[in-house]
Amino acid sequence: MKKLLSIDLNFNNVPRTIGTYLMETEAGLVLFESGPQSCTQTLKTQLGTLGYQLSDIKHVFITHIHLDHSAGAWELANNGAMIYAHEKGITHLHDPEKLIRSATRIYKDQMEALWGTVKGIPHERLRPLTDGDEIKLGESVVTAIETLGHAGHHHIYKIEDSIIAGDIAGVRLFETAGVVPPAPPPDLLIEPWQESIKKLKSLAPAKLCLTHFGTIEGNAAITKHLDDMSRTLDTLGAWMHETFPLAEAGRDKALAELTALLRGMIGNEAHIAAYETINPPEMTLMGVEYYYNKHIAR
Ligand SMILES: [Zn+2]
């Protein structure tokens, strides 16, 4: 069994918000999720404690192109890594202008501080993947599995009985807190997301590796996590369809209600700040507004 080592990127100086997973193979080091470029220095330091440097990473698998998962990939590509992502995400990794524009609407003047510098990746360093693709790296095989709902180009990656879940299994930063569905614009869809959770369950992984954050082990714990995720996703879906359309009293009121809903899902006051660092309610509201305009208001 290849060991997937979890590395905490200490995003924005908050532990357990963004993780990445490292695997040693005969074909060099493999990294799952690059994390943002603002965390590349932390990644370098963590690799150093393991006796490695950035250029030892030869393959980087990105679950989807949201900046918390992909913004550091160009620097790894510049250091010689091949970057793998869903075929629909590849264009944006090559030319991130549209991605940056859309993220700027959410993060405004915090873009650079949060995500670092984002640059395009040359085509020869990019490998598009489609559902079911198997990449052999020495003795290891990485299988890409399309899982939509959070983004229109999301893959989870299966390595033996472990799954790199990206955002499809939600945000669960601490065992003592709940799971929250991250819902930024523009691709949020509840039903395909529920299908993706079913697909994930049917794979019956022994380890579920969350980007936000850490590894959940064992069938019972994973099933419980996925059931919780499915339930909170339905709660968010119901709020979008039933409560949000009535919140014409104003955006501030909608934001306050949504914040309360998400905090209820977290369920542990001590951890609210960490959750809101990686999954700000304002971002979720923008996801809901986009969804409402696209799918409900027409
Ligand atoms: Zn995402």
Summarize this entry quickly.
The protein has one domain (5-296): Ribonuclease Z/Hydroxyacylglutathione hydrolase-like (Metallo-beta-lactamase, Chain A), CATH 3.60.15. Helix 9 (251-266) crosses helix 11 (281-296). It is of the alpha/beta class and 298 residues long.
How would the global form be characterised?
globular
For the biggest sheet, the summary is: 6 strands, mixed
Task: Provide the structure class.
Answer: alpha/beta
Task: Give the cofactors and ligands.
Answer: zinc ion
Question: Which key phrases capture this entry?
Answer:
12 strands, six-stranded mixed beta sheet, 41% helix, binds zinc ion, alpha/beta, 298 residues, Metallo-beta-lactamase, Chain A
Q: Layout of helices and strands, plus pairs?
A:
Elements: E1 5-8, E2 19-25, E3 28-32, H1 40-49, E4 57-61, H2 67-70, H3 73-78, E5 82-86, H4 87-94, H5 97-107, H6 111-115, E6 126-129, E7 134-137, E8 140-146, E9 155-159, E10 162-166, H7 190-202, E11 207-210, E12 214-217, H8 219-243, H9 251-266, H10 272-278, H11 281-296
Parallel strand pairs: 3-4, 4-5, 5-6, 10-11
Antiparallel strand pairs: 1-2, 2-3, 7-8, 8-9, 9-10, 11-12
Helix pairs in contact: 7-8, 9-11
The protein binds zinc ion.
